[in-house]
Amino acid sequence: MFKLPFEWLLGLRYIRAKRRNHFISFISMSSMVGIALGVTALITVMSIMNGFQQELRERILGMTAHMTLTQFNQRLMDWPELYEQVLSQADVVGAAPNIMEQGMVTHQERVKGVMIRGVLPHMEGQVSDVANNMVLGALADLKPGKFGVVLGFDLAQSLGVSLGDSVTLIAPQGSLSPVGVLPRIKRLKVVGLFEAGMYEYDSGMAFMHIEDAAVVFKYAPGEVSALQLKLTDLFLVHRVRSQMAESLEGVFYIRDWTQQHANFFKAIQLEKRMMFIVLALIIMVAAFNIVSTMVMVVTDKQKDIAVLRTLGASPVSIQSIFMIQGLVIGVLGAVLGLVGGIVLSLNIDVIIPFVEHLFGFQFFPADVYYISEIPSKLVWSDVWAVSGLAFVLTLLATLYPAWRASRVQPAEALRYE
Questions:
Q1: What residues are paired with 205 via a beta bridge?
Q2: Domain total in the chain
Q3: Which residues, in sequence order, are bridge partners of residue 209?
Q4: Which of 228, 251, 274 lies at the terminal end of a domain, its last residue?
């Protein structure tokens, strides 16, 4: 039968409470619970941050393309020829032209600044999910010459309009008159409402047919703002950029989603790192509790250490006994924390709505945090990183007390016995 080394037997035995050291056992249990709570909190928060980042990326890229191709002054001529060229690229699966301009939409006494996007309805589905996000009407209801408009759901609510109502678009491209430059004003009919699930788009974007947008914003025939591209993989933007630089003739300006939203995603990544550091302090505090626990154990067990040394135990064996005791406390706490963190991360979509309903408030209001739900994505590399951090901190916490135990001199410890 397999037998554990005596260092393991003694290390595990010292964990169990005795009548004279209940206080030490209580501190050991507190340290274990502290590490478990720290690991659970760290894994849960990291999963929420991962889910938050993925959700925002999907919603942003559901309304915008992976890449945008344009020329000088944000204008692009002869886009059909360029369209055929970019679709010949291996990693490009879709493309569509658009006109992007800013304007003001008014209804009665309400005014809202919006981003107007002129699109070809039958091509827009290649690069965005607008058609799938319609709640009233359809993107195909945008007909050339009819001057219809599709509004974001929150934008329509703030203006107080619905399907079939009319709004007034004020374009900054003015017309000369005897009294000066007058803004261009056009009456538009609401033919649809979309809801992307992201407040920034739902409250500040409107779609028109590309030919109507060209008339309102004074574009030349066949002229657009840019050509939007969709790739097989959104992380291939740098490779596709290099391929286009070699294959396309002429001067083009290429912007991808990592450049358009760089500060946004960098801020999320920085916040994730800072949350990791802050919550790691919980594990560090629990590790310091292990230090104090082990120091008291070493002080309490000096006579036992002296007896073991006189029986032939080496300083390394003594050090191993107390390192095992501290590591068992830390590892048990880390395992409990891992289980709790994984369970919490995988069920956050059930737990958070229950808490919100119970206390009557929202953790993430949609108008502040862009999304109204708390997403969660468990990444196993984060789980292993947290586990490794808990183990290393626990190991470091045991080194000094175990070293002190190995330095106990039998003669000094037993002098007055």
A1: 115
A2: 2
A3: 119
A4: 251
| Phi, psi (degrees; rounded to nearest 5) at 64 | -130, 160
Spell out the residues 6+ positions from residue 355 whose beta carbon is closer than 8 angstroms to its own: none
Helices (H) and strands (E) in the chain, counts: 16, 10
Q: Name the nearest CA neighbour of 108 among 57, 66, 168, 65.
A: 168
Q: How many CB atoms lie within 10 A of CB 223?
A: 15
Give alpha helix (H) positions in 230-261: 237-247, 257-260
Residue 129 and residue 37 in one domain? no
**C-beta of residue 358 within 8 angstroms of C-beta of residue 386:** no
Is the pLDDT assigned to residue 208 strictly greater than 90?
A: yes
User: Model-level pTM?
Assistant: 0.66
Residue 393 and residue 298 share a domain = yes
**63: in domain:** no
Identify the burial level of 144 via C-beta atoms within 10 angstroms of its C-beta, where 0-12 means exposed, 13-18 middle and 19 or more buried.
Answer: middle
**What is the arithmetic mean of pLDDT over 353-362?**
74
Q: How far apart are CA 170 and CA 161, in angstroms?
A: 17
- Residues 6+ positions from 272 with CB-CB distance below 8 Å: 46, 49, 50, 53
* Domain limits for position 376: 6-58+264-413
Distance between CA atoms of 214 and 98, rounded to whole angstroms?
10
The answer to whether 100 and 223 are in contact (CB under 8 A) is no
Residue 198 in tokens: 């992201």
pLDDT given at position 19: 47
Contact between 174 and 184 (Cβ < 8 Å): yes
Domain end position, chosen among 251, 281, 301: 251
* 355 vs 336: CA distance, rounded Å: 23
